[in-house]
Amino acid sequence: MKQLPASIWTLTVGIVVTLIAFWAGGHNGLFPEQASAQAPLVDNFFNLMFMIAVALFLLVAGTIIFFMIQFRQRPGDEGDGVPLEGDFALEAYWTLIPAVIVIVLGIYSVEVFTEMGGFAPGGGGGNHLFMSHHSHHKMKTQLVSDTDAPDASMTEEFNAEYGFGGTDQADVTVTVTGMQYAWIFNYPEQNVTAGELHIPVDKTVQLNIKAADVIHSFWVPQFRLKQDAIPGHNTELRFTATKVGDYPVVCAELCGGYHGAMRTRVYVHTQTEYDQWLAENQFAQNPDLSGAVAVHAEE
Amino acid sequence: MAQAQLPVSSELPQASGHHPTAWKWYDYFTFNVDHKLIGIQYLVFSFVFYLVGGLMAVVMRTELYTPDADVIDPNLYNALLTNHGTIMIFGWIVPAAIGGFGNFLVPLMIGARDMAFPRLNALAFWMLPPAGLLLVGSFFFGGAQAGWTSYPPLSLITANTAQSMWCLSIILAGTSSILGSVNFVVTMVKMRVPSMAWDQMPLFCWAMMATSVLALLSTPVLAIGLTLLFFDINFGTSFFKPDAGGNVIIYQHLFWFYSHPAVYLMILPIFGIMSEVIPVHARKPIFGYKAIVGSSMVICLIGLFVWVHHMFTSGTPPWMRMFFTVSTLIVAVPTGVKIFSWTATLWGGKIRYTSAMLFAIGLLIMFVVGGLSGVTLGTAPVDIHMHDTYYVVAHFHYVLFGGSVFGLYAGIYHWFPKMTGKMLNEPLGKVHFLLTLIGANITFLPMHVLGTQGMPRRVAMYDPQFTHINQICTIGAFVLAFSVIPFLVNVVWSWGWGEKASGNPWRALTLEWTTASPPIIENWHRLPVLTQGPYDYGFNGHEEAEITSSHF
């Protein structure tokens, strides 16, 4: 091949591949709608990787197919190809380029992870590293609560070891218990228990997750968040729902025969609707509580 | 090490009249110590299990044609998914790639008469049939239902007898793999023909070296985990029982410390097969021999430091999530080096469109898809959404079906003439290739979408919104099941009545092609002497290897 056509070819292929990759990165439509503050972070990160992946796939697969056609054996030609064993510069390039790509992705990944709250599990400031005096106290209470009260319902007593947390107080705290084959949601401050999760929109929600029997995994695809419920370990998940509506809650960890049927829904309400739901359930579940009536009356 | 001294005498110890020149059919069912026969035993055994595991997959995909669990009982579904995964890994890919190709090829490629420890070799193989029987037999006790990962506490409370059988089966298979690995390392270190330097050793052998080292380092850890699990189930210990002070996370660490490297145990020998098949059929020296050797070793090393990426959503502190994100991403670099090297090998070649080559190219393209989706899964933020979904199922089927099964097929088409002395039928091979490629993509490509949209894996019933995509996958699975038929017909017919193969039908340069097809019992009458590198295609005066055995 002559020099000029080759460079034009390279340029054209480069432009086409770049255009397709950019388009694919923005229009892959792989994800369901974004309903949490964390979702766009994950999606943008994925789309960047998807863009790079599409470009790399087109280049590699395209090169392979081009070589397969260009360098096919011609009829009657039983000879060998070019005796070329290596090229140090070329090998250095294709070691360096992927290395740079993965380092960039690695750094970006840490940033997304930090923004999602991944570096702060430990529940409302209970991080072992930063707040050791708090966690000592909490560990003690946790031991007590583990043995005495299986439904450790008070927020302060829940010391999560793993998950996505935050250092400040969450607006809503819900204790989530996974069991074969249901999710139980308990609102400790209001003493309300439900089979679906109800939360207000645009508020930080903290889920304190426990497992009653085997490992389950709490997953809301529209929130892009997942956390295992592990027997013997407390975990947590902190997020902010950004869109009113209802979304599936799925168990993602094999938990027995009816694992596939362990599904419920999360309802994201406006604050008013949420307060109303809470009050009604509080009243329905604890009809003799005067406090419940008071909350209802305040509206 | 008396056996390791074998290559010193280059003449066959006894006159060949003492030895039979070919095997009888019943030899394949005996405790025979010949490495080639053991290799074929491994291959046939594992292929039978491939069919068994494939049948399980077809039943599961049939169940998933509709959203409800209306074909089989959900507990049976879980038993099927557990055993499908276990059989495909421990009964098919690992024994076929390491046991089958490794045993048949390593001594032939390095100019040895047999493995260093022939009896140990046979012992390692004969541990597998009981392991397989334990797995299949567990169905009579309900079948292990906790997935191939068998996380406690689920594995402690469901189907105890079946779960115990599952544990024993994997421990047996693991022991077999440890024995095999010791044998490979010693064979390659001590028994190379004297004229072969390390940098003239074929790349398949280097891949087997990396595989064996990895197996030796990681398999004992799995054995520990499963032994403790077995004790918990049967002897009242509580290593993993959370309500009695046990820790379920420890099991996951022990399990994945082996089972992530297991991915490389499956893929490294296949990489080796690729590095043999592509140069021969492209008539080109392999591009970047040293880079390929180095990348195998680097994959082996980094492979030991990435296991926690399977646990991003379970018990993983933040620093671990980040450390293992980065180490996981780094694996992409040596893997990329291999892909680029194979691609560059094609440049300037004279590519033969043989079935072996087609499967090798099919593998390259499938594996690129699996590798790229692997990068997305390797990062903690994205993995937290995708973990335990069909996206993961899609990813590892692209890697393990596209990347391993295609490679095994490429290897079979390439070495079948050497193993049996008969050529496989090429047109039938091409039909097989097309059906496999189409079937695999129809089955596994849509699964990416299922996963990102919100369908978890390991479910017998799912949200009806996923029905259509699941139906496409199921149809693909039927095509895939059907694709085995031309292959089976081809192998059976060609083995019996196929065209006779010469000693070196592909005009390859590695040593296994310097003996007869099939090779005689101690491989050569007179050990071959290396006169050229394994991939010196196109260099003047270096034509295909001579058949030295016929010159005896």
UniProtKB/TrEMBL annotation, chain A:
Coiled coil: none annotated. CDD domains: CuRO_HCO_II_like_5. It catalyses: 4 Fe(II)-[cytochrome c] + O2 + 8 H(+)(in) = 4 Fe(III)-[cytochrome c] + 2 H2O + 4 H(+)(out). GO terms for cellular component: plasma membrane. This is Cytochrome c oxidase subunit 2. GO terms for molecular function: copper ion binding; cytochrome-c oxidase activity; oxidoreductase activity. Its EC number is 7.1.1.9. Binds a copper A center. Subunits I and II form the functional core of the enzyme complex. Electrons originating in cytochrome c are transferred via heme a and Cu(A) to the binuclear center formed by heme a3 and Cu(B). It is a multi-pass membrane protein. Its main location: membrane. Belongs to the cytochrome c oxidase subunit 2 family. Pfam families: COX2, COX2_TM. Its cofactor is Cu cation. Residues 23-120 form the Cytochrome oxidase subunit II transmembrane region profile domain. Keywords: Copper, Electron transport, Membrane, Metal-binding, Oxidoreductase, Respiratory chain, Translocase, Transmembrane, Transmembrane helix, Transport. It is found in: Cell membrane; Membrane. The gene is coxB. Residues 169-280 form the Cytochrome oxidase subunit II copper A binding domain. The keyword Phosphoprotein does not apply. The keyword Protein transport does not apply. One of its GO terms (biological process) is ATP synthesis coupled electron transport. It is an enzyme of class 7 (translocase). The chain crosses the membrane at residues 6-24, 45-72, 92-110.
TrEMBL record, chain B:
It is a multi-pass membrane protein. Its EC number is 7.1.1.9. It holds the Pfam family COX1. It comes from the Bacteria. Keywords: Cell membrane, Copper, Electron transport, Heme, Iron, Membrane, Metal-binding, Oxidoreductase, Respiratory chain, Translocase, Transmembrane, Transmembrane helix, Transport. The lineage of its organism: Bacteria, Bacillati, Cyanobacteriota, Cyanophyceae, Gloeomargaritales. NCBIfam families: CtaD_CoxA (TIGR02891). SUPFAM superfamilies: Cytochrome c oxidase subunit I-like. It is found in: Cell membrane; Membrane. GO terms for molecular function: cytochrome-c oxidase activity; heme binding; metal ion binding; oxidoreductase activity. This is Cytochrome c oxidase subunit 1. GO terms for biological process: electron transport coupled proton transport; oxidative phosphorylation; respiratory electron transport chain. The keyword Acetylation does not apply. It catalyses: 4 Fe(II)-[cytochrome c] + O2 + 8 H(+)(in) = 4 Fe(III)-[cytochrome c] + 2 H2O + 4 H(+)(out). Cytochrome c oxidase is the component of the respiratory chain that catalyzes the reduction of oxygen to water. Subunits 1-3 form the functional core of the enzyme complex. CO I is the catalytic subunit of the enzyme. Electrons originating in cytochrome c are transferred via the copper A center of subunit 2 and heme A of subunit 1 to the bimetallic center formed by heme A3 and copper B. The chain crosses the membrane at residues 42-60, 87-110, 122-143, 163-189, 201-230, 250-274, 286-307, 319-341, 353-375, 395-416, 428-449, 469-493. The gene is coxA. The keyword Transmembrane applies.
